[in-house]
Structure formats: C-alpha cells, structure tokens
C-alpha cells in the first residue's frame, strides 16, 4: 500500500470519528434545549401567546404546531397542547 492510500484511509476514519462526535453533541444539545423548555415555562408570556395566535390565524394550526416543534424543540404533544390552549383563549 502506498502513502496516499494510507492517508486517505486515515482521513476517512478521522472524518467518521469527528462526525460521530458532532452527532452526539447535537443530540445532547437537543436534550438540553428540551430540558430548558420544561424548566422555563414559555407558555405564560402574553407576547408569545399573541405571536402564536397570529401564526395560527395566518398559516393554520398544523403548520403552527410544526413551527413550534422545529423552533423550540417541543414534542408533538407539547406543541399541540400549546396551540390548543392559545386558540381556546382567544
């Protein structure tokens, strides 16, 4: 085996190793975001409720649930309950 082949193999192994580390850190960050959302209630903010209500009125309930899941890392149930709560309030 020549040096170029060895270097390519080592490079591929290192890339796989670093991608694994990055994936684990992303998973840990998502878990921390979710934990933070559970400890800091975002539901009691009137301005937040108003922005959710505006989103419901413009794009509908299902896209608003998807938006909350993507933006705030809420579970499907949490986002749906929040949208229902805000929609019932008004």
SSE blueprint:
Blueprint: H1 3-39, H2 46-59, H3 61-72, H4 76-89
Describe the structure.
This protein is mainly alpha-helical and 90 residues long. Helix content is 86%, strand content 0%. The protein has helices at 3-39, 46-59, 61-72, 76-89. The protein is elongated. It starts with a helix and ends with a helix. The mean pLDDT is 86.
List keywords for this structure.
4 helices; elongated; 0% strand; mainly alpha
What is the alpha-carbon Rg in Å? 21 Å
Taken in chain order, the helices and strands follow as: HHHH
Unreliable stretches covering 5 or more consecutive residues = none
Report the structural category.
mainly alpha
Percentage of helical residues?
over 70%
Provide mean pLDDT, rounded: 86
Output the number of helix runs: 4
| Strand percent estimate | under 5%
Largest sheet: none
β-strand number = 0
